[in-house]
Amino acid sequence: MPSKPRRTGHVRSQPLIAVRDVEASSRWYQSVLGCESGHGGPEYEMLLNNGELVLQLHAWDLDEHANLMGPDSAPRGHGVLLWFETTDFDACVEAARALKVEWVEAPHVNPNSRRWEFWTKDPDGYVVVVAAESRAKRS
């Protein structure tokens, strides 16, 4: 394989998911992750943490995006995990408990990565993983 020139630019992920209720999903993510709204409204949301974009939410079935149509026939994120790292794992766990989330995997230390994590589903059924370094005390 030919050598590629080294890139010096920065790349960061800015995931966008389609949801049934943008405002309700925004509240859920703000509660669990401690994010703040960067846009707001019933069609689109930008969730920010310390001014940095973490996740975008977009309403299903808006005219301008053909791939965001037909929510009833589309598999919800099959093969995709929305993975978030936090430095405040305990607060995320407590917020998730307050929302009475259904745990896919309750808070635990992953034996492979040795990191604290929990897995749950958001209001639209997407699997959400919240992870943190394992050194500090955790819930």
Automatic annotation (TrEMBL):
It comes from Corallococcus exercitus. InterPro entries: Glyas_Bleomycin-R_OHBP_Dase, Glyas_Fos-R_dOase_dom, VOC_core. Residues 7-133 form the VOC domain. This is VOC family protein. Coiled coil: none annotated. Signal peptide: none annotated.
